[in-house]
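Re: Re: token formats

Sure, here are both.
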Amino acid sequence: MEKEIVFAGGCFWGVDAYFKDVLGVIETKTGYANGNTKNPTYEDVCAGIATHAEVVYIKYDGNKTNLNILLDHFFRIVNPYTLNKQGNDIGIQYRSGIYYSNLDDKKIVADYINKLQAKSDRKIVVAVEELRNFYEAEEYHQDYLTKNPKGYCHIDLGLLKEEEKNPGK
């Protein structure tokens, strides 16, 4: 039972590196979502010409994991209280977001965030939207931190515990 979700959590390199090793994740792709133009380039997004978020498309096996577990991981690696900023990355392309293509997922995400919000007096600013568009990022952005192990990453990849990892990946 394959399912999909798209997460935006700042620079997509770290989000991709983290989620590709999560138990039950079949595939990840870096890309650009929910913006104003077709086929944006990295340069367009960085310059603000394209209003897309840097995102990671995640295909997962619903028999091995579920959206709530993936949301646990997502909220472990993002600061849900900062608008258009994660780590040292600042700009609309670095906004946090959860983009769904299944209406059942919208309710799961809303319930999850409502429970999280009830525990905090700070406003959670993670966007929750239907996935309107997704464009795969350039090849050099795919698996970037695997290809460039000393590359920049605002995420502590050590937060993924051994028992949460996909064996063999």
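Second one below.
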Amino acid sequence: MQQDSESALVLFSGGQDSTTCLAWALETFARVETIGFDYRQRHRVELDVRPRVLEQLRRDFAGWSARLGEDHLVDIAVLANLSETALTHSVEIAMQENGLPNTFVPGRNLLFLTFAAAVAYRRGVRHLVAGVCETDYSGYPDCRDDTIKAMQVALNLGMEKRFVIHTPLMWIDKAQTWALAERLGNETLVKLIREETHTCYNGDREHAHAWGFGCGACPACELRAQGWERFLSCRSNPNARPQSNLASARLQV
């Protein structure tokens, strides 16, 4: 199938980062589809919030609704069978001897991008959008810009296509991610992210905070909370408002 240069497939988990990336894609492309992955993750509640977030985006943003197309959910349970991490097994979150937290799932983003590219190939979609970043990424090697560039080259060579991987958050932190969401969808999108998305590694949907639901103690919650506080601080001081460098969001090979 011929690739459509105006279409995009967003790796959408249902969390803060991927929801912001989805909004960015809806502002950028004429047709946007989403893809999520069930890898028996400890925080599988994110799979429950995905359809609610999509439904609310369609309802609250008329300009985006017509652009938002099909959602794909891919079952890759084998990833949990192959890995022994805090995101796929009930073990305490901790740092490992190699300097990486045990929340790192080896090969996860590489598999996500490969499966996403396979779906994009079938759907005639050229652009892939992922919420990975180097700024506050816990050291995950599959979130690095060099990794994404290498994946783009490999996918293009291996599938004989011209995919373009976009990483709108690559060089910004969580405060800037909140600011980007506000710029894209105003307070309506910020409120949606706070109330509907899920980022907590422990899958906690019982405890509500100013920044959203979560246990408040895992690394994902800590990053989100700290980013929210910095975002509010910059809101009250316009001269210190976080600025996102979207010039680095596109990778062209």
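The CA atoms of residues 114 and 159 lie 10 Å apart. Strands lie at 4-11, 31-38, 68-75, 125-129, 164-166, 208-209, 212-213.
- S.
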